[in-house]
C-alpha cells in the first residue's frame, strides 16, 4: 500500500511539472501586414494579323481558352476575289503548259527522225520551260493568298482567361489591332513595400497569406506563399515583389488580399495558448503558486500566443 501511494504521488508531481512553463524571451519574425494584388505572370494580347471584317467572335470576357484556340475569324473579301482570279490564271497557264509540252514532244520526235532542225527543238524546250516556271510562280502566289486567308484566324497565344474582348462581329479591323487581352493561366500576388523593407525581402522567403475576403485574425486562416521574385528597381520609394501561392486560379485579376511579410526579428514572450484564459473582459494567466496576472495578448504564433505585457522573464506559468 505504501508503495502504491508513493507511485501516485510521483505521477501527480510529474503532471504538475509538465503543466508549468518558464517564461523566457525569444526571437520571432516581425510580420507586417500589406495588401497584395492578384496579377497574371504575363498579360497576353491576341491581335489581328490581317485587315478585314470580323466574321465570327468566339469568346467573351471571362472565358478560359487553351493555347492555340481560335478566338475570332477575320475575313477579307479582297482575298476571296484574288484567290478566284488566281485560280483562273492557274488553269489557263496549265493549259498553256500542256500545249508547250505537246509541242516539245512533237518536235523532239521529228528531230529524232531527222525531219526537224535542232533550233526548233531548242525553241520548243525554252517555251516549255517558260510555261512551267510561270505556272510554278502562279501556284506560289496562290499559296501566299491561302496563307493570308488562314491568318484571318485569331489564335490564343497561350492558355489563360480572357480579360477584355473589345472587338465584335461585323467590325472592321486593321492588321495588329487588339482582338482580346488575356491573363496567362498562372497568377501571382504582387506586393509593393516601402523601400526600408527591401533589405528583408529575398527570393524564396515564406510569407503568410490571409484567406480570401478575410483578415488574418486567426492563425488557421493563414496559408504560406513563397517570394518568387524581388524586382531590382525601386520606384517612388517602394520595392515590388511577386509571391507564388496555390489556389489563385479562381481569383479576379486585380483582386486584393492581405499578406504578412517578415520585416526583421524582435524579442518576444510566447506562452501556450491554453495558458491564457479570459474573464470579465480581461485576459489572465496563472503563475506557479496560484497568483493570477492580467496580460495583454498579441499575435498568435505557431506554438502559442505572444504576450505584450504582464509577464517577465523567469515567471513560471501553469497550464490548466
Describe this structure in words.
The protein is an alpha+beta fold. It folds into three domains: 18-41 and 186-318, Efflux pump adaptor protein, beta barrel domain (Elongation Factor Tu (Ef-tu), domain 3, Beta Barrel); 43-48 and 57-72 and 154-184, no CATH class; 77-150. The protein is built from three helices and 20 strands. The chain has helices at residues 2-18, 77-113, 118-150, and strands spanning 20-22, 26-40, 43-47, 52-57, 64-65, 70-75, 153-155, 160-164, 172-173, 178-184, 187-194, 206-210, 222-235, 238-244, 256-271, 277-279, 282-287, 292-301, 304-309, 316-318. It has a six-stranded antiparallel barrel with strand order 2-11-14-13-12-15. Strand 17 and strand 18 (292-301) form a beta hairpin. Helix 2 (77-113) runs antiparallel to helix 3 (118-150). The protein is rod-shaped, with a radius of gyration of 40 Å. Mean pLDDT is 83; it is low at 1-18 and 215-220.
Amino acid at each position: 500500500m505504501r508503495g502504491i501511494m508513493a507511485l501516485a504521488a510521483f505521477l501527480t508531481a510529474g503532471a504538475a511539472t509538465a503543466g508549468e512553463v518558464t517564461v523566457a524571451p525569444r526571437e520571432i519574425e516581425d510580420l507586417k501586414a500589406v495588401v497584395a494584388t492578384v496579377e497574371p505572370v504575363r498579360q497576353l494580347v491576341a491581335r489581328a494579323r490581317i485587315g478585314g471584317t470580323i466574321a465570327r467572335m468566339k469568346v467573351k470576357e471571362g472565358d478560359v481558352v487553351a493555347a492555340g484556340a481560335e478566338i475570332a475569324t477575320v475575313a477579307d473579301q479582297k482575298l476571296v476575289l484574288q484567290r478566284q482570279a488566281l485560280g483562273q490564271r492557274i488553269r489557263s497557264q496549265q493549259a498553256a503548259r500542256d500545249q508547250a509540252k505537246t509541242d516539245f514532244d512533237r518536235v523532239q520526235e521529228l528531230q529524232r527522225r531527222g525531219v526537224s532542225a535542232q533550233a526548233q527543238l531548242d525553241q520548243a524546250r525554252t517555251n516549255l520551260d517558260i510555261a512551267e516556271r510561270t505556272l510554278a510562280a502562279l501556284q506560289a502566289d496562290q499559296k501566299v493568298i491561302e496563307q493570308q486567308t488562314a491568318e484571318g484566324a485569331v489564335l490564343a497565344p497561350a492558355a489563360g482567361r480572357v480579360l477584355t474582348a473589345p472587338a465584335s462581329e461585323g467590325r472592321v479591323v486593321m492588321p495588329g489591332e487588339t482582338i482580346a487581352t488575356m491573363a496567362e493561366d498562372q497568377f501571382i500576388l504582387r506586393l509593393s513595400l516601402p523601400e526600408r523593407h527591401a533589405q528583408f525581402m529575398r527570393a524564396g522567403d515564406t510569407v503568410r497569406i490571409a484567406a480570401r475576403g478575410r483578415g488574418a485574425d486567426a492563425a488557421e486562416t493563414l496559408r504560406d506563399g513563397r517570394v518568387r521574385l524581388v524586382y531590382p528597381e525601386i520606384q517612388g520609394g517602394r520595392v515590388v515583389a511577386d509571391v507564388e501561392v496555390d489556389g489563385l486560379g479562381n481569383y479576379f485579376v486585380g483582386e486584393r488580399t492581405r499578406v504578412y511579410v517578415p520585416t526583421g526579428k524582435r524579442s518576444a514572450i510566447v506562452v501556450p495558448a491554453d495558458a491564457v484564459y479570459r474573464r470579465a473582459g480581461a485576459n489572465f494567466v496563472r503563475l506557479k503558486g496560484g497568483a493570477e496576472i492580467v496580460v495583454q495578448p498579441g499575435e498568435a504564433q505557431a506554438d502559442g500566443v505572444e504576450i505584450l505585457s504582464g509577464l517577465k522573464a523567469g515567471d513560471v506559468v501553469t497550464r490548466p
